[in-house]
Amino acid sequence: MNQLNTQIEAGVISPEQLLKHWQGHRSLTRRVIEAFPEKEFFEHSIGGMRPFSKLVSEMLAIAVPGLKEIVTGKTSPFNEDLDFDGKKENVLKAWDDSTEQINSYWKQLSAERFQEQIKLFGQYEGTVVSNLFYFIDNEIHHRGQGYVYLRSLGIQPPFFWER
Amino acid sequence: MNQLNTQIEAGVISPEQLLKHWQGHRSLTRRVIEAFPEKEFFEHSIGGMRPFSKLVSEMLAIAVPGLKEIVTGKTSPFNEDLDFDGKKENVLKAWDDSTEQINSYWKQLSAERFQEQIKLFGQYEGTVVSNLFYFIDNEIHHRGQGYVYLRSLGIQPPFFWER
């Protein structure tokens, strides 16, 4: 049994399942974006934290650019300074565009690459799969913060378990 | 190639890696618990949400009881009403005890069981691995909310990327 088979033998989740897991989370995040009133999406903050629009910019700056770099091997500097012209509509458009691009790049990612060591955005070292989990976990983390922002505005967020 | 091999062939993360991933998150959550002043841990709230102590109770009520049920097949009703006698020290003790128990039960979970369909706590249907991801994701979600609580108290939380 070669090294690839040894690695593969121990796997607990398939690439297709991981994509579905990620897109399920992204679908929930999209509904959290929708739940914000436009003004509060760009301005509301607690304890000096970034407004939810900035947290979403970070998610968008990580997801497609990160996956694209994993697939193509071409490094770009990390840039989360996205311009939405103060409109949630533009954010949702960027979100949906990312959804399509993620599906498209994912198809180009072969199963044996998930354990490959990489250095993402020129600085984040780890395996491909550890970087992908970082993308997802970071989104869950910041979306959880968006839930508190919504609650502090008296708005009920979507249920966490609905994907 | 039989069905088991087909499933296994596509795996992107090993059981050992998933345990390390989970315990890394749990280690960060422990430091978030530590960062709270005792009174605020049990009382501070935003927008009518539960204080962080209650969110941590939920995490504890899910982790070991959930994993134990997966491993042993014995169902218990979900119970998140844990008593810490108003002391963070007791919470941290319960947390560390859970850390050991998770490591111990994990050793009894064979790789081929991760894709098995189960119904956890008598109600949550899905594969073993989808339930385990739910445990982890739910912890990240609520811990992110704890970050906002800390920030609203003027306290700097631990860095998200330090596990």
UniProtKB/TrEMBL annotation, chains A, B:
Keyword Lipid metabolism in annotation: no
Superkingdom in the source lineage: Bacteria
Presence of the UniProt keyword Metal-binding in the record: yes
Name of the protein in its database record: DinB family protein
A Pfam family assignment: DinB
Species of provenance: Imperialibacter roseus
Family affiliation: Belongs to the DinB family.
InterPro entries membership: DinB, DinB/YfiT-like
Keywords assigned by UniProt, alphabetized: Metal-binding
